[in-house]
Structures are given as C-alpha cells and as structure tokens.
C-alpha cells in the first residue's frame, strides 16, 4: 500500500512539474526589441531543455521499473489459477501517462507484459528460475515463447512551441531585415505640354490645309499702337461668312500694352501673334524722321513670313488696323481669287480705289471691276507663290513703293473695284494726317452687297480685258478739260482727254480732282497709262496716245 502511494506521489510530481514548465514556457514575457539571432538562440536553449527533460523522464521510468522488479522478487505470489498473469495497475497507469513521452511508457508497458507472460507458474505459485532471474542457469526444457511484439517506433521529438506574440514579433523582425523592395519604375514621361502659341499654330495649319476641301484664306490684320483696331476687327467679324474659311490673324508690333489688351479680349475669335524684334533700326541720318516706315516694312515682312511659311496659308488678305470694310468685302475676294490663281499676269487683288472719291465714281456700278498697273494696297490679297518671290529681297522701308517698281511688278497688274471695299479712318499715323485730310477721308465706301461669286468675271483676264478696254477707250471722242467742265459736250457716253507729257497729266489731274502723282512712271489707278473716272455723271478716260508702249520710270 505504501508502495502504491509512493509511486502515485512520484508520478503526480512529474506531471505537476511538466505542467508548470509548460505553463511558464507559454507565459514567459516577450521583449519586442529582440533581434532575430537572439530569438533563434532562445529557441535552441528551449529545445535543449526539452531534450534534457525527456532524458530525465526516461531515467526516472527506468528507476521505477527496476524498483518494481526488486519488489516483485521478494513479494509472495498471489493465489489464483495456474498460469494467471499478475496484474500491475501501477505499471499500467504509468503506461497511460500523458505526454511528453508516451512512446517510452508504451514501450515499458509492453516489455513488462512480455516478461510476466513468458514465465510459467508452478502448482504452488512459484515461478521456476529462468534466465531472467537466475544468472548462469540453463532452462530444464525449452519453453516456447510468445511471438515478439513488433517494435514500436520511437516517437519523434516534439517541436518547441513558440507563443503567438513571439512568433509575430519574429516575423516582423525578419520582414524588417529584408532588403527594401526596389521602387516601382517611374511612369513613362508624358508628352510635353504644348504652349498656347504652338496650339494656335497647329489650329491655323489645319485650317490652311483646307476644311471641306476648300483651303482657308487668312485675313492678316497689321496692328501697332491704335486701340481703334477694335473697329476694324468688329466689322471683319460681322461680315465674315465663315471662321474656318477666313481665320483672322492679328499681328501686333510696338508692344503697346493697351492695344494688346484690346486684342486679347477677342479670345479665340482671332489669332494674335506679336512681332518679337523691337530693337532700334539703324536708319540713315537724313531719314530719321521716317523711322516709322522702316518699322512698318520690318513688321510686314515678319508677319507675311509667319502667315505663309509658318502657318502654311496659300493666300492672305492683308488689312491695316485703321480700315473700315464693306459688307461684300469677303465676297469680293472670294470671287477674284480664282482669277488671281489662273492669270499669271495678275499678282494682287485690292479692295481700294485711289481715285474713289464720291464725285469720281459711279455709285450705280458697284459691281464694276478693273485691272490696274498701280499697286493700290489698303486691303489686298496676295498668294504664297508671289510672296516667295518677294520675301528674299524685301526692302528695309517704303515697301509699298518698292513693290510698284518694274523689277517687282514685272509687267503684272492687280484687280481693283470701281467703289472701294475699304476706307481708312486712321488720321494719326506715319503720314501725320496730311494725306488723310487732303484725300483719304473723301473715299466712298460701298454700302451694297454685290454677289460677285455668282457673276462671270472672266472679262478681267488679260486676253479678254485688253482688247475690250483699248477699244472702249480709244473709240470714245476726244474732248478738252474746258469742254468737259463747261458741259458743252453734245455726244453721249464716255469721252477721252489725252495727255502726252508728265506735266500735262499732272495739270489735268489736279483740275479734275484726281491723284496726280506717279510711282515708277505709273499713275494711280492707271492701266496701260489710262486713268478711268467719273465727272458729272459721265465716264472719262485720261489717256496717253493710242500707240502707247510702256511706262517711263523717269516720270516718278
């Protein structure tokens, strides 16, 4: 009985010790700042302690087994049937002990059972001596032994258990020790943002290429320091039939802020470009007072280069910033453009009549057009081909008189109207208002819309025009200025006043109220030397001899 208590006490102590060890292991404090190597060392130490405990448990079990056999040798046999096995509940209870070493206890239980069952018991209850009990004694006869139980494989050593908190900390530390992930590749570079000037240029090039199969005609407005450019722009925007077919480009010189602000206010309705070169132009000393003409020539050259060669327009209508325009301004240029492209003897179309005063024009002939050898300007149309010819030799000043020279005109003419489709309102300018007060302010601006695009204008082609024009002029009767002025002419229809010298022309022109100057020998509005005008309701031709051959540049 005392032995049973002793065995129970030992077994209970072992269980309590194992449970306390396991509990302390699970609840040990975890330091969050441990390094990975420190954790690994701790785990190895813990595993070593578990292995030592297993070895100690095995030693204790071996001691228990040895003690059991010593007690059994001196214990009297228990009465019972012959061959009955002696039950040892203590050993069985030890065999049923829980972890940590069930395999060792099971092996002990099997071996103990085998020892008891293989030893026979005589009639008096004594076991005969055998090799297990008497050393060196041979058995009287061979006793067949029971088949040996198959070997029980040793239980694998249990892995050390790591608390969840420590495991999470270990994973975090290992993650912290991992090299940082490489940064993601940078996104592909976005295309550079285009400036407003680049976007404007692209839009203009698109229009120049053609909308609906019809290339656009650019309207180039030359501006400087007059905020009254708004008057001109408002009329152009009012009469323009299509912003796609007639885009308006305003080129500003002078860097005049109020004018720039006025232009910017139009937004996308116009395209604003600004002449960048504001440097002082080297002007000959005797022409210092004409510096404005040098600035104008530079501005014209730059603006036309931009419009033709940068924006790629094929045709441009040039308008100064101080012009009023007629309601059929765009209709007029639309109808004459095919003539300009078809006839190589034409190099421009102008909306201006230099002798367009109300008393000198037929207000009932708003649809009448002429050829002229004199470049009118003041609202005129030019092609890219002609500009490519003029641009390389563009002058430093007085560009309008320069294009009237024989080397630039090359015998070519322009088209001009009976009634002007433009009129200047700019009294202030490089001419100081003198020319405006004397002449320009009296020009009659057409106020009727003429459907030119519905008319046949082939009469303006040189082969058709020259024959009819010469016939009509020189078939008209010759009269003197005195007869014309007195009204004594009896014959109806047009009449002709001849001139033979420069002075004769200038004298007669002044008396009639005509412009009397020449440029490279060409009178204003003249064609083949003939100036056509109205006088008191009658058509009059101021004309040279019928055998006229060419202009005399010395008449300038």
Automatic annotation (TrEMBL):
- What EC class does the entry list? transferase
Q: Which UniProt keywords apply?
A: Cytoplasm, Disulfide bond, Glycosyltransferase, Golgi apparatus, Manganese, Membrane, Metal-binding, Signal-anchor, Transferase, Transmembrane, Transmembrane helix
A GO biological process held by the record:
protein N-linked glycosylation
Renumbered residue ranges of the record's region Disordered: 116-199
Q: Which reaction does it catalyse?
A: N(4)-(alpha-D-Man-(1->3)-[alpha-D-Man-(1->3)-[alpha-D-Man-(1->6)]-alpha-D-Man-(1->6)]-beta-D-Man-(1->4)-beta-D-GlcNAc-(1->4)-beta-D-GlcNAc)-L-asparaginyl-[protein] (N-glucan mannose isomer 5A1,2) + UDP-N-acetyl-alpha-D-glucosamine = N(4)-{beta-D-GlcNAc-(1->2)-alpha-D-Man-(1->3)-[alpha-D-Man-(1->3)-[alpha-D-Man-(1->6)]-alpha-D-Man-(1->6)]-beta-D-Man-(1->4)-beta-D-GlcNAc-(1->4)-beta-D-GlcNAc}-L-asparaginyl-[protein] + UDP + H(+)
Q: Which PANTHER family match?
A: ALPHA-1,3-MANNOSYL-GLYCOPROTEIN 2-BETA-N-ACETYLGLUCOSAMINYLTRANSFERASE, PROTEIN O-LINKED-MANNOSE BETA-1,2-N-ACETYLGLUCOSAMINYLTRANSFERASE 1/ALPHA-1,3-MANNOSYL-GLYCOPROTEIN 2-BETA-N-ACETYLGLUCOSAMINYLTRANSFERASE
What name does UniProt use for this protein? Alpha-1,3-mannosyl-glycoprotein 2-beta-N-acetylglucosaminyltransferase
Taxonomic lineage is: Eukaryota, Metazoa, Ecdysozoa, Arthropoda, Hexapoda
């Amino acid at each position: 009985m005392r032995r049973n208590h002793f065995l129970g006490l030992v077994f209970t102590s072992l269980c309590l010790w194992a449970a306390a060890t396991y509990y302390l292991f699970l609840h040990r404090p975890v330091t969050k700042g441990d390094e990975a190597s420190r954790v690994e060392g701790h785990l190895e130490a813990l595993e070593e302690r578990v292995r030592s405990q297993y070895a100690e448990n095995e030693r204790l079990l071996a001691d228990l087994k040895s003690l059991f056999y010593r007690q059994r040798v001196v214990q009297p046999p228990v009465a019972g049937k012959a061959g009955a096995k002696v039950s040892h509940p203590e050993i069985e209870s030890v065999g049923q002990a829980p972890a940590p070493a069930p395999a060792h206890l099971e092996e002990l239980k099997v071996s103990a059972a085998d020892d008891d069952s293989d030893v026979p018991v005589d009639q008096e209850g004594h076991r005969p001596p055998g090799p297990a009990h008497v050393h060196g004694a041979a058995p009287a006869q061979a006793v067949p032994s029971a088949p040996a139980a198959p070997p029980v494989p040793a239980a694998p050593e249990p892995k050390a258990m790591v608390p969840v908190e420590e495991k999470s900390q270990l994973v975090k530390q290992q993650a912290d020790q991992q090299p940082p992930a490489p940064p993601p590749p940078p996104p592909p570079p976005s295309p550079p943002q285009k400036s407003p000037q680049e976007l404007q240029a692209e839009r203009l090039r698109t229009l120049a290429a053609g909308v609906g199969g019809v290339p656009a005609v650019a309207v180039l407005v030359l501006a400087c320091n007059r905020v009254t450019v708004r008057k001109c722009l408002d009329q152009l925007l009012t009469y323009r039939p299509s912003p796609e077919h007639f885009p308006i480009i305003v080129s500003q010189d002078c860097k005049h802020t109020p004018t720039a602000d006025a232009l910017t206010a139009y937004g996308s309705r116009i395209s604003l470009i600004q002449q960048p070169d504001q440097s002082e132009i080297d002007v000959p000393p005797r022409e210092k007072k004409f510096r404005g003409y040098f600035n104008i020539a530079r501005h014209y050259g730059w603006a036309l280069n931009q419009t033709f060669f940068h924006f790629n327009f094929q045709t441009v209508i040039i308008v100064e910033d101080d012009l009023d325009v007629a309601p059929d301004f765009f209709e007029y240029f639309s109808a004459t453009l095919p003539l300009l492209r078809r006839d190589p003897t034409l190099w421009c179309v102008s909306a201006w009549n230099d002798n367009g005063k109300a008393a000198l024009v037929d207000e009932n002939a708003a649809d009448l057009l002429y050829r002229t050898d004199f470049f009118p300007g003041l609202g005129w149309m030019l092609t890219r081909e002609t500009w490519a010819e003029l641009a390389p030799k563009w002058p430093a000043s007085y560009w309008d008189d320069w294009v009237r020279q024989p080397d630039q005109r090359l015998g070519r003419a322009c088209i001009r109207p009976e009634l002007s489709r433009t009129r200047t309102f700019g009294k202030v300018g490089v001419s100081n208002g003198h020319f405006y007060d004397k002449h320009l302010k009296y020009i009659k601006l057409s106020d009727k819309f003429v459907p030119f695009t519905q008319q046949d204008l082939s009469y303006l082609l040189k082969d058709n025009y020259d024959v009819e024009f010469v016939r009509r002029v020189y078939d008209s009767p010759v009269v003197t200025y005195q007869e014309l002025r007195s009204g004594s002419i009896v014959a109806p229809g047009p009449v002709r006043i001849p001139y033979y010298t420069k002075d004769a022309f200038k004298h007669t022109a002044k008396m009639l109220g005509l412009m009397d100057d020449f440029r490279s020998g060409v009178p204003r509005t003249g064609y083949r030397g003939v100036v056509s005008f109205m006088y008191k309701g009658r058509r009059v031709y101021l004309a040279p001899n019928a055998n006229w051959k060419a202009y005399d540049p010395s008449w300038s």
